[in-house]
Amino acid sequence: MNGLNHMLEIKNLYARIAEIEVINDLNLTIKEGEIAAIMGPNGSGKSTLSYILAGRENYEVKSGNILYNGQSILEMDVAERAILGIFLAFQYPVEIPGVAMMEFLKTAMNAQRKARGELELKIPEFLKHVKAVAAKLEMDISMLKRPLNVGFSGGEKKRAEILQMTLLEPKLCVLDETDSGLDVDALKIVADGVNALRAADRSFLVITHYQRLLDYIVPDTVHVLYKGRIVKSGDKSLALYLEQNGYTDIIGEVT
Amino acid sequence: MIAGQKTILTQAEAKIIDNFAVLKGEMAQRGLLLEAARKAAMDSFCKNGFPSKQMESWHYTDMRTKLIHIASCNNTKADRLLAFPLLPNNIVLGLINGQAVVSPEMKWKKEMLCATPLDKLLTNSQAELPQDFADDNVIAQINTAFVSNGWKLDILENVSLDKIIELQNIQNGGQSHVRFPVTVGKNANVTIIERQSGNNEDSFISSVSNLDTAEGSQVLWIIIRERGLMSSELNQFNAQLGKNVVLKLYVIHTGSHFLRQEINVNLNGIGADFQLREINLLSGKTHTDTTMVVRHLAENTTSKEIIRNVAMDRACGVFQGIIQVVKEAKKTDAHMVCNSLILSDKAEFYTKPQLEIFAEDVSCGHGATVSEIDHDQLFYLMARGIPEVKARAILVEAFFRELIEELDKEKLRKVLWRLLDECLQAHI
Amino acid sequence: MPATQETIRQVRKIDVDQYKYGFETKIETEKAPKGLNKEIIRFISRQKQEPEWMLEWRLQAYHRWLQMQEPRWARLSYDEIDFQDYYYYAAPKNQTWLKSLDEVDSEILATYQKLGIPLKEQEILAGVRKQNEASELDDSLYASGGVAVDAVFDSVSIVTTFKKELARLGIIFCSISEAIREHSELVKKYLGSVVPRADNFYAALNSAVFTDGSFIYVPKDIRCPMELSTYFRINERNTGQFERTLIIVDEGSYVSYLEGCTAPQRDENQIHAAVVELVALKNSEIKYSTVQNWYPGDKEGRGGVYNFVTKRGDCRGDHSKISWTQVETGSAITWKYPSCLLRGDSSRGEFYSIAVSNGHQQIDSGTKMIHLGKNTSSRVVSKGISAGFSDNTYRGQVMAHRRAANARNFTQCDSLLIGNNCGAHTIPYIEAKNATAQFEHEATTSKISEDHLFYVMQRGLLKEEAIALIVNGFVKEVIQVLPMEFSVEAQKLIGISLEGSVG
Fold first, then answer.
1. Residue A56: its chain B contacts at CB < 8 A?
2. pTM score, two decimals?
């Protein structure tokens, strides 16, 4: 089902934060419709990669390039990238007291629609849509009345991320350790939410420490990230191999 | 020259002393009494002048350099129009350029509430004035010397007033010095809004509210200040809390050239509780000082003060807060938090949160932060496609909204938010 | 928990208001006449054989002092001080210009021994060598973990140990009097450059009459291999001690300095007005630790040292760092705000403090962190414990200048009250003048939690032991940053200071 178009191409990327090298000559290509998984031990640069894709400040790209649908996104700010369809599901979504969840969803959706030249959503249809998606994710409607992520449990926060992802209909979904802090039931619900979004014109970059998530979101390709670069790539079987054997021997090959 | 007078006066100090010479006669003509008190107050002012920063309670507000201009004491004839009440059913008691005004259709039950314009009481010396002319209490000095009007309110025992009392102090140019003595009877429950407003004309106001509460009463008091950038105001809110009294004070400040807001709350009765939520939206080239003293004088008293400030443009903000706990006030629980966002490199904010604790069995604390907008939050919002400018605005709003959300009266909450939102839209 | 056990044992052993260091050394003393005037200043300068410029400097300070007012803004109450009623110079007879330790009066040696301060280098080395592995430095020098001491007795420095060894690395460690004579250029360049002569009333007084103190210069790229320390002792009656310390650490270097002080038990109030100046150049670091244990006065509040101190460090170079750690248990009055001027970009200031007040002691102490350079950061941790009839105030200022982009401060200041006749106060001044400053300040005041006390006592500890244990936990964060030599000592001291506070 993967298209031939490259949705994301990371070429010889070097990046640093606070003068420390975090990404060293990273190369990665994701095709349209592809689900790519990034695995790696703690501290290998997985979350860093997701931040760099989203355009977080203080992450300084020294050289190389990131092409999204053939266009370099390095000069774009965070919101511009989001509007182009890059969505980051955060490992640790921040709590923002004083910002109502619904208000936030409406603002974000309308900001994106406006940038695409679409009309703003009408309130009733917006409400209906949000409620339907929330129901699918088995989210308590009362959560939507609370301030953004405030007082949400770890699992609730992750669901809220998938809710946003569904509503914003991005093209490239970056899932940063979405499985962390979830029990099996919650994991299934979240994975179902993700799987429902699979489409020929939508790609996923699934970052995870454990292979468990990949039982539910089956990847086309698996890449091992270590010391800021991809040290091994393969298919789904690579994840299973890692689960049984750990990272040691693959890392050993490299070092 | 008056004996004991300071030898070198600033222009503003001299003007106040001159004004007194002029207005003294005028007030006497109107039959406003209290000459002795006025003279004592003025003597104290002459001796001390404006406080300078050497005075610890004025450390960040050197009035001698911050208040350099005093508006004329000749009040122009203002159009006698009250502002629309914030909520349609509010009982509006107004002062327009110092004149007591009440709309004719305004009705309330005499057995619940007594409201009398202060000038009526001043003419037969029924008004009581506090006599605290401590060296640093320049507000009491000026206000007592010049007070000419206000509203005296008495909320009677066991009355639960569902209508909100709205005190409007409107000053369109000129000067006025007003006072609101308020008593709240046993187990009474009342909401009072003190609206300090005015246009862009040059004005100078002093306003002193004295709230005295009896056992078991509950008061929600909201000070809303929306004055023009040519206005200077000295405001003092003094409250005495009896046994099990709950006082919630909201202060929402969005404008004026110079402001000193003093808040003095004494928790005299066992079980009294004081809650302060203050919002300062500071812009332009202005100076805003909130100085608060909360005294825990009895056992099991509690207080929580949250002050949130946003400083923009060339605004300078000050918060000084003292929580005092005397030896007898065992089991006091008192916490104060002051958070400031500085949004411009030319804006400044000074915080001095103090604890003075003399009792052993207490839990007291204060927190203060000064920061930029939270980068993690900004990143999160922008990662959802919200442009930076909008995302920043959302976060500033959220910073204030949290305090407003705490109000349990929904209509009031909405109207306060609308008010604040208008100011935010204008500035951010 | 050995330290806790130790504390408890100490507490038990010592009688209620017995100050351990309250003994007096009987020794003949040379004194200047009582009082303060230009003649006394000339006398001091002459005694010290100072160059002319130094006398001139002192006289100018005196001139300014005469025009100044005693500061009264602190939360301290005491009778007016009659500055003419003190001796400004007192020196043990025949104890100046000593060539070796053998010439030191045996009474003085005995005094320092009693105080637990070793002055004989051999002894120190012997103690250290046992556990010390071979060092790459010269064997005879080596004393990593050893301490070089400058011992100041009333107005004079008696002896400075390990001088020669340090000199081999180019480190100058001597009394300030000697530095004024021998390293005149360095002193001239830096003296008063951090705390100007007329900075405040007490600094001006000190500048006029300072008698001794320590001088340290660490040259470029040297990590001073041992702790340097000064031990101050006021012995003589009615004597003011005006110590002056100047520490300069050149680019890329490091020094850790310890300061200790005690005084005999006396009914009248002794006065101590010190000035300490630190200069940290590019990439250098100074760690300054104090255990202040001047005589605090008796149970009724009679006597005790008045301690008015101006301590300031100047992070003059980029990436420099100054760290103050203080354990304040002594003195009747403490007025002390060790500060950092964060002038260099990316410089860092730290202040860790434990202030214990008991009896009728009054403490008004804290710090100033003045952020001037870009990307500067500071951290303040203050733990105040009040007991008895004492008053304990933390007063601290954190300021970010308009150009100090990205200034960061974190302040934590906690007070603990023991008993119902004492006071604990917190007065922070938080001043932000730019949009990128990030300050975080937290303060709490509480008593020892009944729950904690119950828990610990349920495990079999007596109330006094339980309190000692909890107090040690309360101050742990600060104890941890003290050099090893001091941390055990400090914990003991805190226990002793709180003696008798449990009702």
1. 379
2. 0.85
